[in-house]
Design goal:
Number of helices: 12
Radius of gyration: 24 Å
Distance between the termini: 64 Å
Bound molecules: flavin-adenine dinucleotide
Largest sheet: 7 strands, parallel
Helix content: 25-40%
Structural class: alpha/beta
Number of strands: 21
């Protein structure tokens, strides 16, 4: 929250007028800041008397940053296993930790999850912070925020990485806000800034037209979310071991304002794009929504997921959860089929790290062929059923 230096306030009301959140009121000719304050700083810049400070700036000035050490990775658990994104981040976290001369730790929150620590060690973690409690058995915003924030207050990591998944995008900003630190969302690149030794968080900005590199110089920990599949999983070494630091949970059932009622699986294998090893994607070149069945049939035979271009999603042929690209999902499967997809830069941004790209397009000059490892020039509606049939024979 912003802080009013009451003796300096001249009661002019400029801050009240400029606050976009209606968080400031004048009481007895002095500005008073309410709970709606987001520390956006509009009032600080406007106040002619210099009577407003950001609380976070006070905290930053008082913070001893040398106490903050080590790189942490949030390890998301789904159906009893670690999600790929956490393992991918352990690979990148290892590089950051080595460059900073610090340790790499995974953070595991849940219940009955201790066995997963070995997977984290195999993927590069030196340590795992483990908070196990029935209240954390499923992801919930209140419990996980409290448990993770508590860990950070106690052990003071320098860097915290989270996946830009539904849960990571929910959890990361809440923790950052509680700690009064910054978070760079949806990063596509991580490095170390040579001049400062800080983490250089790179992410697309202005609709992907520029890449912005962001530093967090004043606050700790430095935090960021990273899209799944941007980085490759490191090759695991199961001979490695590490230290498990068990921390008792202080979360009580009463602290959790939501209640788990039911799990409704809206989509299974076909839209689990981030974890898929094979993705078959379709674009506008399929001609009409009914022709998408050819993409789905090939995906089913290969046990892969179904992707779509934005043109297809915008036309209502497939729901947004299937969209691949800059404003959809970033994927990195072993094999990516692009069927009737032109290869616009925004689509490529989401799938270019695939190991093998196979494109089917009737235009031999389509940009997708410049990215593809294998190209089939032809009508996708004719080619797809032939491919499906051939793969079916191989599998039989
Ligand atoms: P088209 O560009 O229309 O291409 C259709 C292709 O199919 C053509 O190459 C054509 O030769 C081929 N074709 C036609 N008939 C056949 C046939 N019978 N058989 C085989 N091939 C055939 N797009 C995304 O996909 N993902 C995103 O996340 C995304 N984000 C965006 C964000 C912004 C800010 C903007 C401005 C755009 C974004 N787009 C995104 C849109 C992107 O620019 C393209 O418009 C989109 O990817 C085109 O989809 P498409 O390739 O299916 O369609």
């Amino acid at each position: 929250m912003a802080v009013i230096i009451t003796q300096e306030c001249i009661g002019c009301g400029a801050c009240e007028a400029v606050c976009p959140f209606g968080a400031i009121s004048l009481q007895a000719d002095k500005a008073v800041i309410g709970d709606a304050c987001t520390q956006c700083g509009a009032c600080v810049d406007t106040c002619p008397a210099g009577a407003i400070r950001r609380e976070a700036e006070d905290q930053a000035a008082a913070m001893d940053k040398s106490q903050y050490q080590d790189v942490w990775v949030y390890l998301e658990v789904a159906a009893g296993s670690l999600k790929n994104v956490g393992l991918e981040l352990l690979g990148e976290g290892r590089k950051l930790a080595d460059a900073m001369g610090q340790k790499l730790a995974g953070v595991l929150l849940g219940n009955n999850i201790e066995a997963l620590a070995q997977e984290a060690f195999a993927h590069g973690a030196d340590q795992v912070y483990l908070v196990a409690a029935p209240e954390l058995a499923r992801y919930n915003t209140d419990g996980y925020t409290a448990a993770f924030t508590d860990l950070i207050h106690t052990y003071k990591p320098s860097v915290v990485l989270l996946g830009a998944t539904n849960d990571g995008r929910d959890l990361g900003p809440r923790i950052a806000c509680r700690l009064g630190t910054g978070l760079t969302a949806d990063c596509t690149g991580l490095g170390i800034d040579e001049a400062t030794g800080l983490v250089a968080w790179t992410r697309p900005a202005f609709g992907g037209n520029i890449m912005a590199t962001i530093l967090c110089p004043e606050h700790r920990p430095q935090m960021g979310t990273v899209r799944p599949s941007v980085f490759k999983r490191p090759v695991p070494d199961y001979a490695k071991s590490g230290e498990i630091i068990k921390v008792a949970s202080k979360v009580k059932a009463a602290d959790i304002r939501t209640k788990f009622l039911d799990l409704v699986q809206v989509c299974t294998v076909s839209c689990n794009l981030e974890e898929a090893e094979i993705i078959v994607s379709g674009g506008r070149g399929l001609g009409k929504p009914e022709n998408f069945c050819y993409v789905e049939e090939l995906a089913a035979v290969l046990g892969g997921a179904v992707g779509a271009s934005r043109a297809v999603v915008d036309s209502g042929w497939k729901p947004p959860m299937h969209q691949v690209g800059q404003t959809g999902k970033t994927v990195g499967p072993k094999i990516y089929f692009a069927c009737g997809i032109s290869g616009a830069i925004q689509h490529l941004a989401g799938m270019s790290s695939s190991d093998i790209i196979i494109a089917i397009n009737k235009d031999p000059d389509a940009p997708i062929f410049r990215m593809a490892d294998y190209g089939i020039v032809g009508d996708a509606v004719e080619v797809l059923p032939i491919l499906t049939e051939e793969f079916r024979k191989i599998k039989a």
